[in-house]
Amino acid sequence: MIRVELPVHLRRLAHVEDEVTLEVKGAVTQGSVLDALEARYPMLCGTIRDHTTKQRRPFLRFFACGEDLSHEPPDQPLPSAVASGAEPFVIIGAIAGG
Amino acid sequence: MSKVRVLVGTRKGAFLLTSDGKREKWEVSGPLFTGWEIYHMKGSPVDPNRIYASQSTGWFGQVIQRSSDGGKTWETPGGGVTKTPEGMPKGESNKFVYDTSPETGKPLTTHQFYDGTPHPWEFKRVWHLEPSLTDPDMVYAGVEDAALFRSKDGGRSWQELAGLRGHGSGPKWQPGAGGMCLHTILLDPSKAGRIYVAISAAGAFRTDDGGQTWKPINRGLVSQYIPEPTAEVGHCVHRIAMHHSRPHVLFMQKHWDVMRSDDAGDSWREISGNLPTDFGFVIDVHAHEPETIYVLPIKSDAEHYVHDGKLRVYRSRTGGNEWEALTKGLPQSNCYVNVLRDAMAVDSLDACGIYFGTTGGQVYCSADAGESWAPIVRDLPAVLSVEVQTLP
Predict the structure, then answer these.
(1) CB atoms closer than 10 angstroms to residue B148
(2) What's B338's DSSP letter?
(3) Residues 133-162 of B with CB under 8 A from A
(4) What is the ipTM for the molecules in this complex?
(5) Among B192, B252, B203, B195, which residue's Cα sits nearest to residue B226?
(6) ω into A68 cis (within 30 of 0)
(7) Residue A98: inside a domain, yes or no?
């Protein structure tokens, strides 16, 4: 299972209290993880990436295993520790504004 | 006995304030949608339990919330939690996509940026939600960058009424200080298909065919801050109000100037009269007296707080020009709050109630048409919008 850590605003929107776990079929990439996340929690559609272009919203960043993956291609495989569930895929709001 | 429910949108969540018809003791519930900006909430006139809310942040974008039980519970229409990835269709309640299709849409042009340079059209947020007068599942949304959307399925999906953006004057529209927003939507109760909208900073527009075609209705407006002060578009209209019994009579708070039209917006005349300053954001009409109107003057476009440190509502009982200050119960010294354009409302009880919310987090109520005021709450986050429902 893939673990995903959401920022607090999105946890409230999705009615979850902690990190979520997802089953991802096929290659574990940013794109496939977000596809699975949005399928499970449809209210998150549009809040992390654009509905149509699938581009990451500008004030959000993606981290895993201590690395900033925000600018990696969405179809690039995520670290094996994320794919195995040892480490979470982390979505955070950039520190900008109050 | 009748009661009222006040819907308050703030910078950090929403609040519901309820009272009986006396409007003396209040129950406060909230915050809802904590930490999100709630630009606007409004209930359906035909089903008061149906309430729509616009929830957004710069980080996560737009979300539409809907309640079908008077605000006790909320859902993102079409976006409920699914048990399996294949469980339900994806929610599209926050999907606002400009219609550029060849069949029904219009090409996305540019509008003017603050410095006059061309800038691409980009959706940012919903400023105002206006439920239909007849169908609780139909609701209009005024958005930034300025456009009008409509949902016919209770907020689940949205379609742009692209004729407005396609009017042809879009390249001359420009953002006001708050962005290029469509913030006012007035549905004419006497003429099906007639809708008024207002955009900062483009001006007022009217359709008579349900949104297919639009015309600018800005004749008589004079704006010294644009290159051609009497131009067809480019005016920073802050708010328009109407009385349901005379929907062809419109009252406008412009950036500067309070204006009136007696011909459905075809022409406007100034009614600022003896106001201490005619800059402001809100304007509203008494529920039972269509010539009684309310404004709340703000010092200037550079100083967005009340004049002389005094929080004063001004009332005209003559449809404009002659104004009286209403101050009883409002702070008359050291007050420097603003009242934003969607933050005034009136109820329809026999003794008409007037409500407004401030950027300082106070929500005031007058249960006697403005003669006296009392705070319902004092310490909310900055108030973005106030609506009131009069309930049986």
Answers:
(1) 25
(2) -
(3) none
(4) 0.84
(5) B203
(6) no
(7) no
Q: Which residue of B has its CA nearest to A56?
A: B60
The DSSP-derived string for B246-272 is: -TT-EEEEESB-EEEESSTTSS-EE--
What average pLDDT does this structure show over B62-77? 94
Q: What is the pTM of this model?
A: 0.94
Cross-strand pairs, B261: B250
State the CATH number of the domain containing residue A8: 3.10.20.30
Give yes or no for B34 touching A (CB within 8 A). yes
Q: What is the mean pLDDT of residues B306-331?
A: 98
Round to whole Å and give the CA distance between A94 and B268: 46
Q: Which residues of A touch B94 (CB under 8 A)?
A: 45-47, 51
Rounded to 5 degrees, φ, ψ at B335 are: -110, 125
B293-298, strands of its sheet edge to edge: B279-285, B293-298, B313-316, B324-326
Please check whether residue A88 lies inside any domain of the structure: yes
The two structure tokens encoding residue B67: 């309640």
Q: What is the pLDDT of residues B124-152, one digit of tens each?
A: 999 999 999 999 999 999 999 999 999 99
A59 touches chain B (CB under 8 A): yes
Query: Contact at 8 Å (CB) between B222 and B276?
Result: no
CA closest to A33 among chain B residues: B85
* C-beta of residue B123 within 8 angstroms of C-beta of residue B165: no
Q: Are B197 and B184 in contact (CB under 8 A)?
A: yes
Residue A53 in any domain: the answer is yes
Query: Domain limits at A21?
Result: 2-93
